[in-house]
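Forgive a beginner's question, but would it be possible to get a protein, spelled out as residues, together with the matching structure tokens, please?
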Amino acid sequence: MTPQTPSPALGPASEPANADGPAYSFTDREATLQARKQTETLGQRPGALVIREGALPPRLFLISYDEQTLTEQECLSYDELWASFQAHPELRHWIDVRGYGDLALMERLMHDFALHPLQMEDVLGDFQRAKVDVFDNNRLFLVSRMTDFTSDLEIDDDQLSIFTGPNYVLTFQDDYDDCLNSLRVRLRSNFSQIKRKSSLYLAYALSDVVIDHYFPTMAAIGDYIEGLEERIFSERRERRMLNRILRIKKDIVRFRRLVYPERDKISEILRLPEEVVPEDVKVFFKDLYDHAMQALDLAESYRENITSLTELFLSDQSNRMNEVMKVLTIISAIFIPLSFVAGVYGMNFQREAPPAGPNPLNMPELYSPWGYPGVLAFMTLMVAGQLYYFWRKGWLGKQR
């Protein structure tokens, strides 16, 4: 599948409504929910199912298909879904569960589809790293991390859990919206390759769409970095610019931590025996591995770019400080000799000392009619000489 391109509305000049706020904001959300999950599951036995606070009520979607037919429905109850699934064993099915807010429903799904409690615990935890497990009858349990971005450059990071079976794929996600609509459109097509292949190919297609959505996310990050590069030399609010750079650097590191497990997961799938993943499906996973490597290369490139951007910003700040110090040094160098001359003539030693007569070692200029203009002229020549010397040295600008 060709990687998607970002929306043209999201360019380097795009900014969140709060210009001082983070450009990307999924790191704090993840940390908050992980901390809440650890608190809720503290001391629980392994495999205990816990529904986190605020989980959405489940919505159940069923797509049943073969090469000639396709039916698509949202089931109002689990009994309706189970009856439709059981009534057509000759078809392949995609059962999509969106929302985790019903513990009884999750337990029935676990029982009816023979899912392991530890796997369901990973599903409901919702912050499991990307991985693949093989369980009974060579079925697969896949975890992927979906990313999507909004018009104000905020990134959503959600978990997609995939279970494969002989004639079905069962997916779980905690939100009603996802990045899988393009796959649903492909399924509705009469010429879709998915409808002619096994259910395992549908699991591949789901992973493919997830990884392809990394590219518009990375493109948005790249555009934002380019915008930061352009503003470094014009932005005068140094603290705000540095905050933006540090925030995007944190998010790039977070994104790399999403992509690395995806690459490792696909690599592990390619090593599975043929009775688990047939060779005709492994060919597609090899292509998916190339996509994951490309996304990882982009993440590495952007990490190097943001590191260079940080160094460029600090170098620019240092140059600005040097310019300020140069001006202050020149001003000080001009006034130091003037202050010396003024200080010497401000000592007020008397030239006349009656009745003994003049003091020959004291300042004769004090009573000279041209003493004051002469000292001013001398000080002016001193400043002119200094400025000429600074100009010859190039401290006041380039010589012609």
Observations:
- The chain has two domains: 26-317, 348-393.
- The first strand starts at residue 59 and ends at 65.
- Residues 279-345 form the longest helix (67 residues).
- The domain at 26-317 is CATH 3.30.460.20 (Beta Polymerase; domain 2).
